[in-house]
């Protein structure tokens, strides 16, 4: 798949430049929708090149894909990681015209710790408490979110199913309130964007009950949410050759229905589905 990749700087902190890779569709005809992809690594490891495996699959479907780096723990304490993600969203929106993107069609997709950041970004759009030193002139709200095997709730108490030790992100001195403010499940609100969750049921690192719990809370809130569970698959299963293209075709379908042209799919259902016609 011959997809053009470009590297730019999206944020500078002191003399530190944060880079972003852009994967552009092969043709001029594309979805006008952006996807910002966030790597995993437990907030301590990894880099944006991990997304080079996935970017071409979505760019090949007509999406403009962005893979930003964000500061890891060790370089900067929480919430610097989320602040960088938000800065990337604002940067993409501010420069949307350059890539013929609709600024109201920006999705964020994350893997593991990146999935946590993606869900946090979805629930804290334009929230001053999470912007740090970012320029608030351009919105950092996202219009859809995709999360693979994400941690969804941090805790300082005894672990319950679907929880992650807060110390992993916040350090040993974390308080219950700090853990709550860093937990995506606690950020669900009436404005939460359409959400796509993917998880393997044999995940031994982040058990799939995390996505089950997140989906239940989103559904209760009235958010448009889809949950895809893959039996017997473990953490990072999406990198398997048999799953890579399949999962990203599903993501492309989700984004077309939610962002690219939802009216088309609603109309198709009304015209061709007899059960919808009975409504």
- In angstroms, what separates the terminal alpha carbons? 43 Å
- Helical content class: 25-40%
* Rg (CA only): 18 Å
Element string (H = helix, E = strand): EEEHEHEHEEEHHEHEHHH
| Number of contiguous helices | 9
For the largest beta-sheet, the strand count, sense and barrel status come to:
8 strands, mixed
- Class by alpha and beta content: alpha/beta
Can you offer a commentary on this structure?
- This protein is of the alpha/beta class.
- The chain is built from 9 helices and 10 strands.
- The chain has an 8-stranded mixed beta sheet with strand order 1-2-4-3-5-6-9-10, with helices on both faces.
- Strand 3, helix 1 (55-59) and strand 4 form a beta-alpha-beta unit.
- The chain is globular, with a radius of gyration of 18 Å.
- The protein starts with a strand and ends with a helix.
- The mean pLDDT is 94.
Q: What is the topological layout?
A:
Blueprint: E1 4-13, E2 16-24, E3 34-38, H1 55-59, E4 64-68, H2 80-94, E5 106-111, H3 113-123, E6 144-148, E7 154-155, E8 164-165, H4 167-170, H5 176-181, E9 195-200, H6 209-221, E10 225-230, H7 241-260, H8 262-272, H9 274-277
Parallel strand pairs: 3-4, 3-5, 5-6, 6-9, 7-8, 9-10
Antiparallel strand pairs: 1-2, 2-4
């Amino acid at each position: 798949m011959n997809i053009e990749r470009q590297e730019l700087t999206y944020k500078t902190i002191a003399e530190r430049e944060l880079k972003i890779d852009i994967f552009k569709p092969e043709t001029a005809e594309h979805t006008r929708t952006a996807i910002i992809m966030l790597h995993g690594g437990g907030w301590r490891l990894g880099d944006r090149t991990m997304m080079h495996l996935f970017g071409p699959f979505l760019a090949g479907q007509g999406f403009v894909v962005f893979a930003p780096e964000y500061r890891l723990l060790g370089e900067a304490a929480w919430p610097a990681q989320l602040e960088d993600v938000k800065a990337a969203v604002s940067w993409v929106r501010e420069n949307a015209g350059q890539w013929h993107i609709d600024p109201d069609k920006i999705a964020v997709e994350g893997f593991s710790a990146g999935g946590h950041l993606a869900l946090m970004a979805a629930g804290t759009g334009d929230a001053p408490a999470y912007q740090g030193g970012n320029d608030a002139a351009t919105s950092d709200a996202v219009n859809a979110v995709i999360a693979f095997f994400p941690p969804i709730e941090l805790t300082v108490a005894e672990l319950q199913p679907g929880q992650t030790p807060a110390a992993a992100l916040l350090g040993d001195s974390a308080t219950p309130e700090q853990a709550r403010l860093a937990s995506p499940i606690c950020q669900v609100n009436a404005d939460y964007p359409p959400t796509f969750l993917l998880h393997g049921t044999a995940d031994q690192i982040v058990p799939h009950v995390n996505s089950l719990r997140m989906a239940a809370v989103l559904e209760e809130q009235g958010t448009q949410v889809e949950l895809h569970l893959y039996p017997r698959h473990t953490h990072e299963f999406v990198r398997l050759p048999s799953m890579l293209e399949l999962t990203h075709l599903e993501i492309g379908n989700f984004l077309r229905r939610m962002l690219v042209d939802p009216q088309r799919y609603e109309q198709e259902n009304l015209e061709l589905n007899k059960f919808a016609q009975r409504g």
